[in-house]
Records
---
Amino acid sequence: MSNRGNCRDAKHAGAWYSASGAQLNAQLEGWLSHAHSSFRPARAIIAPHAGYTYCGACAAHAYKQVDPTVTRRVFILGPSHHVALSRCALSPAEIYKTPLYDLRIDQKVYAELGKTGMFDRMTQKTDLDEHSIEMHLPYTAKAMER
């Protein structure tokens, strides 16, 4: 595992969304099949970050606008529900695990952002406790399939 880097587990899988890759894939495909791609390709989307039971269908309308053939990089911003932050914070993880597949964080971009002095680094515990970004990871993984 050491050659894979620092991994952030999908802590909310099994509670906020399915921990089964096959079941999650089927759910995402179902929701996406009912959404329309009317603004594709989107340069930015805004999507909810609640449990998929509550917002899975709604989020599909945002993620349906993503075109993986033209999207080269994805930035996910989310609020902090558990820790007060005075500015944006970067995850200590190099890899975000999802039930579908793992997503690698671009460490070169992280280094560039860090050099600006405008970003903090959150702790692993803060990252694991927070759900706002994690809820976007399975949809991001699915939307970026070619």
---
Amino acid sequence: TLLNSVARAGAFHLTLAQAGDERLLSVEFTAQALSVDRLVSARVHSNHLIHADTGRMSQIVTGSSGVRQRRGEALLEQTPQPEPQRRALGILWDAADPELPIYRTDPADSDVENTLASAVFRVGADNVEWAVYDVAYEAARFDIRDGLVPVTG
């Protein structure tokens, strides 16, 4: 793969999906390692390495990252909502933990890590749709379908 054959720096996570392909791949990589997990069920991923292959690597896991990962996993274990987009937004907008919520907007928070925006992607048989939310519980700022054409109304 491209990620396996080129030099890497830093540490990143991304999820790969393609219209018409039912595979969903969770990819973590650092300069030293590459891990790819095929997802067969819903998962959450905050800002640190969690795969079996990379999660044991030396890393700094901030308090907010660890708390958000555990809270997201707990929310996934609760009764699933029938609508995946609502379920995803419910997790992304969760603020149950007053100190380190998943959705963070306090300018005086303890580690200066606030939510800038949240995105939900819907990958179908022949298209990819995505919505970007910059404020919780409000309509999407951008709702994109059929490439990069914004949807109005």
